[in-house]
Design goal:
The chain is an alpha+beta fold. The protein is built from 11 helices and 9 strands.
Length: 325
Amino acid sequence: MARAGQSDRGWAGLLTACRSLTFEPHDAGAFLNSGGRYELPLDEEFPFAIRLLHYSSRWRVFASTWHERLELFIPIDGRTLFQMGEELIDLQASDCLVVDNLKLHHVADFEGFDSRAVVVSFRPEFVYSLGSLSHDYVFLLPFYPPPDRRPRVLPLRSHPEAADALRRLVVAWTGAEPGPLRRAECRVALLELLLELARRFRTPEPVQWEFLRQQKRSLRLKPLFDHIGQHYAEKLTVAQAAALAGMSEPQFMKTFKRVAGLTLVGYLNHVRLAAGVRLLRETSLSIAEVASAVGFTDQSYFDKRFKRAFGATPRDFRAGRSESP
């Protein structure tokens, strides 16, 4: 394969490559499982995917989620608001966001929202597993929680090496090369992109065992996350949640806030409100019935939390009169 000319490299090269590609209207509702969790099937032998998505207020379905797969989110044009835990991140075209995958997150709606994005998803073992070379865990360091817990955003427009790695990744994923060669090109380009991110977000490296311990500690919450996804309307005490995670209550409270970015009550409210959105859109239940169905015993409290989250009361949301944030 011929090497690209200088004019085809970096961010400009990525935009050129994307001109001939189709960005699908994003309907998160099509990926929700019965528990309201956003599922993206990945090939067991090649757990990697790139999605070219077009977001718009016209068709976007709210779906706040968490997932085990790792993800990079890059708007190609236009402004995008990305909710991650308790933080609303204002992204511009070329900003590469390292998604904190275990925090509840979603693309937030606002008036006039219309943007395309490249979303890179892969499972951690695609890059590093117990059978990998010992230093390969460095490729996952961009996803290791930074000391200040601030979101990691790299403007690719001013980092041409990272932008060019993403360009080659998109070209390989959408290209016509035979399967094994295409997969090899994708993996090499992804590793180069992750290496650039690791360089730009350089922090004191945890030793390998510490990194693995953090991964294991985070995944101990998976049974709890799954339980909440299926039983969000039921009462859940801290003691019950800690038992599901196999932790003491003090250890659980510290770990949960660190991993999920929210308190247990905040997390439950987010999941319940997401379920409320679906019921308001897809059913004719009264607002009081919706509030009860998703676990709010007090409709006025449901109304208050809903307006704080979405900028509109449940009644106005159902009528399509949401306000911009």
